[in-house]
Specification:
The complex is a heterotrimer of chains A (747), B (263) and C (151). Chain A is an alpha+beta fold and 747 residues long. Chain A has 16 helices and 28 strands. In chain A, strands 3-7-1-14-11-12-13 form a seven-stranded mixed beta sheet, with helices on both faces. In chain A, 65% of the residues are buried. With 263 residues, chain B is an alpha+beta fold. Chain B has a domain at 172-262: Enolase-like, domain 1. Chain B has helices at residues 9-18, 31-36, 72-75, 80-83, 85-92, 97-102, 105-111, 119-124, 142-145, 225-232, 243-262, and strands at residues 2-4, 23-25, 44-47, 57-60, 63-67, 128-133, 136-141, 146-148, 151-152, 159-166, 172-177, 188-195, 200-206, 213-218. The longest helix of chain B has 20 residues, at 243-262. Chain C is 33% helix and 15% strand. Chain C has helices spanning 22-29, 85-93, 102-115, 121-127, 139-150; strands at 2-7, 10-15, 48-51, 54-57, 70-72. Chain C is of the alpha+beta class and 151 residues long. In chain C, strands 2-1-5-3-4 form a five-stranded mixed beta sheet, sandwiched between helices. The chains are: A alpha+beta (747), B alpha+beta (263), C alpha+beta (151). Chains A and C meet through helix 1 and helix 14 of A and helix 2, helix 3, helix 4 and helix 5 of C.
Chain lengths: 747, 263, 151
């Protein structure tokens, strides 16, 4: 147990405060996007491609349109405005035109009075496909026919890479990439496709406003960018599309891209009735992007004393059929490829390719997860080669303020890598538990597979880091609006911020910040919609605490100044209403040829974590029980410590899942395990107790010194769990999720 | 689509005779997934929940009779759990409590999945399946009842009443390999008993061939038994595991189970 | 077809299509969306309800099977005076993040504590193994169960 059990109702920055939405969530009253209802509502349904790659010869909707209860059947010809959208590049059709590029791509949509009527109508839509050979091997993709005409991602300041199907490629040349060391270790590492597996499926309700516009109630991570993608496709002005945040059942990156927003809006505008869409779990697996699978070749050259001399890495990411945020993921995988270590020479080559595999984009850890798994495996290997303690090796190379990354970016703010390593390494690990014991506390768990036979214990260690906030010159801002009015007890405040509450607790960050700044208990959180306040940016990149706190702080201070100007009090009926936009220090792009920073630097700040893992492995059956995890994490300043511990524990669980069990499997581009029966996430019997230590070293330029907390646990835990498994088994285990076959030594 | 809910077994059998296409539904853990994901749209569902005749268990002439509606939760409770320990252990590996409260032994027989967790424990108990129709009742040994993956010997007008199983005459155990430590469909499973009365070891595996299957040996002839069990399997590669792993794991499980039960 | 059942102590009826699950009827026909639709295949426990006092996944119960039976959902768990102690404990300990799994966990925990008021850590883990949470890593959920058990 990490956090004090007792929480406050109305706390300030730095205190553990009960979530403002906790009561409605425990009673079942909290309205998630799949819970919505409107009078006269229709149900939308999506017809999807059964092929990973095919030409569409014909879409015949004639049978479906006349069916009982059916009010609309729409295809790409019915898209009123722009035919394609995308988070960074508009390369994804709203509904497929002429060609489908991935399994599950939307081809047509239906609205009917009952979901079963919609499903039956969908069945009657005849789509004639001519299957094409799918591009499914990322290593061959750059030699195959391009799956997109033109080059959707070219001309955005990226390195010119003329090979077919390249989304983005980056080469970072740092120091002398040919520098030799005294010891060299190398390896090839792979990661499967991980799914966000948020529990609340993609869903929402679109309500026509009767004047040609639409209100969309949806679970998303970024209201304003949803609007900016939806409106052009509907042929509407941005003001005619109002996106309202509905209850979000988890996100983890998977709600950055659109899912049903445009489809439901099209159906609502076409039928002039509210339209609800709810994906089921199978559909959810094709309804959002995933974490990029990767193959990583790495070579570490070091001196005998352990000091790194040169890191050479080649990283191949499979972006799937559409770009999503692949370009930014590519940048992260490259920038953090060498880990939180000072290395004077490096050559990092990273490419992300288009294929006909499931589209990939943002997921918690965003490129850093993949690199961390590889660089930490390499550090373990180097330690073994040198006969050096893995913690000592990492401390010897730990990055510190004043050092530079391989991108040439100098670390100017807080970067307590050595501190998190020391603190995590100092956590006492539990003694091995005596046998016999209940099978639940052995590898295999409830499967009752061992009483102790074959069980070996291992201890692993890993360190990782990533950036906070947007990078590479992307404008990063958050707006907040504060309204003060007289109340019976003095002054009451309402705060608006479009920051998406996805479970992480940003609602409390906003309220705690406002209470602190206004020195007031009576603060109410207004609803998050595009019509009440400016953009907050997305709930991603571990940025929302920093950015929301910054914006609310600015707006509150402006409101307070105004209050003071008016003499410190408000008459009944008198209000103060101010909106402010917060920006962090601007960032600048990487040089497209050398991968070196231009200007101030590509990132505004970094967050790091170290982790120690104890695991027991049944080496005869290849089954694992993670016994204990200890971690120390650099958090800047914990705004709500209870929530910070919760983020760490939950983030670790997702990384543990990738290490041990989570993988979307495909065959020729078709997903073969799109269910919670076969895509497995950790259960109560898979997660060990977590001992977490917060390292609070304030970030100089951030409000209250905050950083971000959501991603580092996920970045590091996959690597740390794999490290413990290697220690227990003596095997290389170069691919995650680790399959039992590899542990028992089957080919 | 229609739902029929008989309240007596006779009524149920009449309905099944009239509507042989009716799909029986008891705990719903298989049928509802088919319905929810639009994989099946049976014209008629036959809801068996109200049939008292299918519930519970009883002792019959030295063997145990399990009603088709016996849930996994019930199979884990004493004194039944002491008479059929492998079935109790298998039941504990089925889903979570919610699934164990609804899922039934009869459902496992009806679905006849090679991964049905109750099937190996029933096989080592020489289970005989009781079937009924308006034509009368008949019994079929379980190994004959299971005819293929998700196929069984049930006639269109028949319902499963239950199964008769030999109570344990010696130690029994059940083991199930899955990719995580709870809530898994088995990658491979094994039930094993050392039956001192008959002087034999009986092992039955699941998820390692088209049907769950029994392999026996004399107590004096256990050398190489794990390999024999593995050799009797005909596993395939699928999303849950590889054929090679299944064979390997089966021999490891068998060796461990023998040791566990001989102690 | 018509389904009549007792939900949270109240007689309710609904017209349903024969293929509908109890979960769909609760959420879309009876105005009780507290039970959640996360997997609809019995793998996550988000739709946990008590059917005649037994913990089940509402997604795996055919609506017609609930006809004539008694149901308690998360909405009916609290007492007149306020929250159920399990609900209090989940809110207090930080066991709620996105909250989508919470109703299912709350119902499953209430069921556990009704049968076993002082569960061991192993018993808690096993009893809740049919409920998936993607946000918390379960630590604070276990804290909540222990807190509720002690209260």
């Amino acid at each position: 147990m990490n956090a004090p059990a007792r929480t406050l109702e109305l706390g300030r920055v730095g205190e553990s405060v009960k979530r403002v939405d906790a009561i409605p969530k425990v009673t079942g009253e909290f309205a998630y996007s799949s819970d919505l209802f409107a009078a006269g509502m229709l149900w939308g349904h999506t017809v999807r491609s059964p092929h990973a790659h095919a030409l569409i010869e014909e879409v015949d909707i004639s049978e479906a349109v006349g069916m009982a209860g059916v009010h609309a059947v729409l295809t790409h010809t019915d898209v009123p405005g722009a035919k394609a959208y995308g988070l960074e590049f508009a390369d994804q059709p709203v509904l497929a035109i002429e060609r489908v590029r991935y399994f599950g791509e939307p081809v047509a949509i239906v609205a009917a009075e009952h979901p079963e009527q919609a499903r039956r109508a969908a069945e009657r839509i005849r789509v004639a496909y001519e299957p094409l050979e799918p591009v499914v091997d990322p290593e061959r993709a750059t030699e195959q026919e391009p799956i997109h005409d033109g080059r959707p991602t070219a001309g955005h300041g990226f390195r010119d890479d003329p090979r077919p199907n390249v989304v983005r490629s980056i080469v970072i040349r740092h120091g002398d990439p040919d520098a030799q060391g005294e010891v060299t270790v190398s390896g090839v590492y792979e990661l499967g496709i991980q799914d966000q597996a948020f529990l609340g499926p993609e869903s929402g309700l679109a309500v026509p406003d009767g004047e040609g516009g639409v209100d969309v109630y949806v679970a998303t991570q970024w209201l304003h960018v949803d609007r900016d993608q939806v409106a052009p496709c509907l042929g509407l002005d941005p003001e005619q599309v109002r996106i309202h945040l509905s209850g979000v059942g988890g996100a983890f990156g998977g709600r950055e891209d659109l899912s049903m927003q445009i489809h439901a809006s099209m159906l609502a505008l076409h039928t002039n009735r509210p339209v609800k869409m709810v994906y089921n779990r199978e559909e959810s697996f094709v309804g959002h992007i995933h974490r990029h699978p990767a193959k990583i070749w790495m070579e570490h050259r070091a001196k005998r004393d352990g000091k790194l001399v040169n890191v050479r890495a080649r990283i191949l990411l499979d972006g799937g059929a559409y770009a999503s945020s692949s370009a930014a993921v590519t940048a992260n995988a490259s920038a953090f490829a060498c880990g939180p270590y000072a290395v004077e020479n490096a050559l990092v080559e990273c490419a992300c390719v288009y294929t006909n595999n499931p589209p990939c984009g943002a997921m918690r850890g965003f490129g850093a997860v993949q690199s961390c798994f590889a660089h930490e495996a390499q550090m373990d290997k180097l330690g073994a080669e040198l006969g050096m303690d893995p913690v000592e090796l990492r401390l010897r190379n730990a990055l510190a303020p004043g050092d530079s990354l391989p991108t040439g970016q100098k670390i100017t703010g807080s970067f307590p890598a050595a501190e998190v390593i020391r603190r995590a390494a100092a956590l006492p690990i539990p003694e091995p538990e005596e046998l016999p014991r209940d099978a639940l506390r052995l590898p295999g768990g409830s499967g009752n597979t061992t009483r102790g036979e074959g069980v070996r214990r291992g201890v692993g260690f890993a360190v990782g880091f990533k950036n906070v906030c947007y990078s590479e010159g992307f404008d990063d801002s958050t707006a907040a609006r504060v309204r003060l009015a007289a109340s019976d007890d003095g002054i009451a405040a309402v705060v608006h911020c479009a920051a998406a509450e996805v479970g992480q607790g940003v609602v409390n960050v906003i309220l705690q910040t406002a209470r602190t700044e206004l020195d007031l208990d009576e603060v109410v959180l207004g609803s998050a919609t595009t019509s009440s306040v400016g953009s907050a940016g997305s709930a991603s990149a571990s940025r929302m605490t920093w950015m929301a706190a910054g914006a609310v702080q600015l707006a509150c201070r402006a409101a307070k100044d105004e209050l003071e100007r008016r003499g410190g009090d408000l008459e009944h009926g008198e209000t103060i209403d101010v909106e402010r936009v917060y920006h962090h220090r601007p960032t600048t792009p990487l040089d497209r040829e050398t991968g070196q920073v231009t200007g101030d630097g590509a990132h505004v700040a970094y967050i790091c974590a170290a982790m120690r893992v104890v695991a027991e492995v049944d080496v005869e059956l290849g089954l694992t029980r993670v016994v204990w995890i200890g971690t120390a994490q650099d958090v800047g300043k914990a705004v709500n410590p209870q929530a910070v511990y919760g983020q760490i524990e939950g983030g670790i669980a997702q990384g543990l899942g990738l290490a041990l069990m989570e993988e979307i499997q495909t065959q020729d581009g078709l997903i073969t395990n799109a269910s919670f029966t076969d895509y497995l996430i950790p259960t109560t019997l898979d997660m060990p107790p977590v001992e977490a230590q917060l390292v609070e070293e304030p970030e100089p330029d951030a409000p209250y010194g905050v950083k971000g907390v959501g991603e580092p646990p996920t970045v590091v835990s996959t690597a740390a769990v794999a490290s413990a498994l290697r220690d227990a088994t003596g095997r290389q285990l170069t691919r995650v999720p680790v399959r039992p076959d590899e542990i028992v030594g089957l080919p | 689509m229609d739902v029929l809910t008989p309240t007596t077994l006779d009524e149920a059998l009449r309905m099944k005779a009239e509507r042989p296409d009716a799909v029986p539904i008891q705990g719903g853990t298989d049928v509802m997934v088919e319905l929810n994901f639009d994989r099946a749209r049976p014209a008629v569902l036959l809801n068996l929940n109200e049939l008292a005749e299918l519930r519970g268990w009883s002792r019959e002439n030295g063997s145990i009779r399990l009603g088709a509606g016996l849930t996994y939760t019930e199979a884990m409770e004493a004194p039944l759990a002491e008479k059929l320990p492998a079935l109790a252990e298998a039941s504990r590996t089925v889903g979570g409590p919610q699934i164990r409260n609804r899922g039934t032994v009869g459902g496992n027989l009806g679905t006849a999945s090679p991964a049905g967790d109750a099937l190996p424990p029933l096989l080592i108990g020489d289970a005989v399946v009781e079937l009924a129709s308006i034509r009368g009742e008949r019994t079929v040994p379980l190994n004959e009842f299971l005819t293929g993956p998700k196929r069984n010997a049930l006639a269109d007008d028949e319902l499963i009443l239950g199964a008769r199983v030999r109570a344990a005459h010696g130690a029994q155990t059940f083991m199930k390999v899955g990719p995580r430590n709870a809530m898994v469909i088995s990658v491979v499973s094994l039930a094993l008993t050392v039956d001192r009365e008959r002087d034999e070891v009986r092992a039955a595996f699941g998820s390692a061939g088209p049907v769950a299957r029994l392999v026996s040996a004399r107590l004096a002839d256990l050398d190489g038994f794990p390999e024999r069990v593995a050799a009797a399997a005909s596993p395939i590669d699928d999303v849950r595991g590889s054929a090679a792993y299944r064979s390997h794991a089966l021999s490891v499980l068998t060796a461990r189970a023998v040791e566990r039960c001989l102690q | 077809m018509r389904v009549e059942l007792t939900v949270n102590g109240e007689r309710r009826e609904a017209d349903a299509w024969a293929g509908e699950s109890l979960l769909y009827v609760l959420r879309e026909r009876l105005g009780l969306p507290g039970s959640k639709n996360a997997c609809e295949q019995g793998e996550c426990g988000s739709c946990s309800v008590l059917l005649d006092g037994r913990l089940v996944c509402a997604c795996l119960v055919l609506a017609a099977q609930a006809d004539g039976h008694e149901l308690v959902t998360v909405e009916g768990l609290g007492e007149e005076a306020g929250l159920h102690p399990v609900q209090e404990a989940f809110a207090e300990t930080g066991a709620v993040q996105c909250g989508f799994c919470t109703p299912g966990f709350v119902v499953a925990t209430a069921d556990l504590l009704a049968r076993n008021p002082r569960p061991s850590d192993d018993e808690i883990r096993e009893a809740l193994s049919g409920n998936l949470c993607r946000c918390t890593g379960y630590a604070k959920i276990f804290d909540a169960v222990r807190l509720a058990a002690g209260s």
